[in-house]
Amino acid sequence: MCFITSSASSTFPSLHSPSISMLKINKVLSCAGTDRLQTGMREAFGKPQGACACVVIGQVLLSVRCKDGISNHAQEALRRAKFKFPGCQKIIVRRK
């Protein structure tokens, strides 16, 4: 059982995203006769490869508001999601 089993009206996820930068790559060939195929650094804007965000230690990345009945499902969903982020993340449960 994960986050999917709860209804959409009972959870309020929010992503605290800082400014996100696009990573671009300028592919360069490395074989004989490549000088006819590529332009070097001329028009080297690159193609989008991915996105990245600069975060600091202790910054909140993701928060979920939910009812007490499904808090276990939300914690399990966050536990599974934290493996998708590099580094070390902690899940903190607060009650308001």
From TrEMBL:
Belongs to the universal ribosomal protein uL16 family. This is 60S ribosomal protein L10. InterPro entries: Ribosomal_uL16, Ribosomal_uL16_dom, Ribosomal_uL16_euk_arch, Ribosomal_uL16_sf. Keywords: Ribonucleoprotein, Ribosomal protein. GO terms for cellular component: ribonucleoprotein complex; ribosome. The keyword Chloroplast does not apply. The keyword Cell division does not apply. One of its GO terms (molecular function) is structural constituent of ribosome. It comes from Capsicum annuum. It comes from the Eukaryota. It holds the Pfam family Ribosomal_L16. One of its GO terms (biological process) is translation.
